[in-house]
Amino acid sequence: MIKVAVCGANGKMGREVCEAVMNDSSMNLVAKIDIQGDSYRTIEEAKRYTEIDVIVDFTQPKVIYENAKYCLRNGINIVIGTTGLKDEEISFLKKLSEDNKVGCFIAPNFSTGAVLMMKFAKMAAKYFDNAEIIELHHNQKKDAPSGTAIKTALMMSEEKESFKKDNCPEVETIEGARGGTSYSDIQIHSVRMPGYIASQEVILGAAGQILTIRHDSMDRKCYMPGVLMAVKYVKEHKNFVYGLDNIID
Ligand SMILES: NC(=O)c1ccc[n+]([C@@H]2O[C@H](COP(=O)([O-])OP(=O)(O)OC[C@H]3O[C@@H](n4cnc5c(N)ncnc54)[C@H](O)[C@@H]3O)[C@@H](O)[C@H]2O)c1
Question: Is the CB of 46 under 6 A from ligand 1?
Answer without folding.
Answer: no
